Amino acid sequence: MRVGPADVAAAAALLDGVATRTPVEESRAVSALAGGPVLLKCENLQRAGSFKIRGAYTRMARLSAEEKARGVVAASAGNHAQGVALAARMLGVHATVFMPQGAALPKVAATEEYGAEVVLEGSSVDDCLASARAHAERTGAVLIHPFDHPDVVAGQGTVGREILEQVPDVRTVIVPVGGGGLAAGVVAALADRPDVDVVGVQAAGAAAYPTSLAAGHPIPAARLRTMADGIAVGRPGDVPFGILHERHVPVRTVSEEHLSRALLLLAERAKLLVEPSGAAGVAALLAGGPPVRTPAVVILSGGNIDPIVLLRVVRHGLASAGRYLQMRVRIDDEPGALAALLGELAATGGNVMHVGHVRTGVDLAIDEVEIGVQVETRGPRHCTAVLEHLRAAGYRVTEG
After folding, report:
1. Is the N or the C terminus of the chain less surrounded, counting Cβ atoms within 10 Å?
2. What is the pTM of this model?
């Protein structure tokens, strides 16, 4: 089914007073990656922490009184869950939400606080979708799909409509892609603007779209392994796939390293907290690849991140950015040798975070010990300087 600018405009009227008109923020650090002006569409500041309220409310507001009375059911790793739960509360509808057993605890708690009944089941969104469909057949509840429905696509498309109003001269919109609802909605909103490119971005560990677009039909991803749980979807939706395929929208992939570095860059330089899936567009710019036309707008699709996951991702990002140096150093097994090594590290300005000893090994001499050291540095050049200093002092150093 086609979705176009008129459908998006109708959804925008429904969402008036419901969804927040999120700001666009210019970032010099991100602009430098693209070689031209880049603005960030901050859906991480949206109600319930992501763009999902737009599609969920649009779909649910159009249900008949009889359908609303039967309640709704949804499946989500977290963001759609919160969008459905909030929309259901606003519309006075009972909501049941199936979430993976490994869903982030803050997302589960927020969904329950909005008033939804949460059922933890399965290991992926696709597992939860199967359970939600079975629940709908059993109880008569209406399934609110996270991306595969024209009303949901139209609702998500209001992000694109706002971008056109806020950045009239935009030339490229970069969109995180899971099932494809947000990207398809943006394409629908921009249907009358052929001068604007839309570029999708998926995590390489959960990338169903590149293969599907090449084949001309949806193909399930071979695996789902990524920190970006918000876009870890096994199979493209039929409705969004049809739109993206028809408009020849390219979908790039990004590594876990680039996702973590993008999250760190946004936190450090733009002062914005986003979840890994929300940082996918910035990760694509970090990764390089084909240049994008500017001014460009990157959609930060969500900011719902578990603090424990945030800690892990920041550590991963710091390591990827050369801010942590992991090395092994062999020293004589005698009093004062470790103190001397730490003194040399202090002289370089490195901050020792962790020290470990290995005293036995087939390749270790009987009178030596291997020291594993993690050092906080000021960046890649400082890492190189630390290594050169230790080697010049006579230490046998191995990175990693």
Report:
1. C
2. 0.86
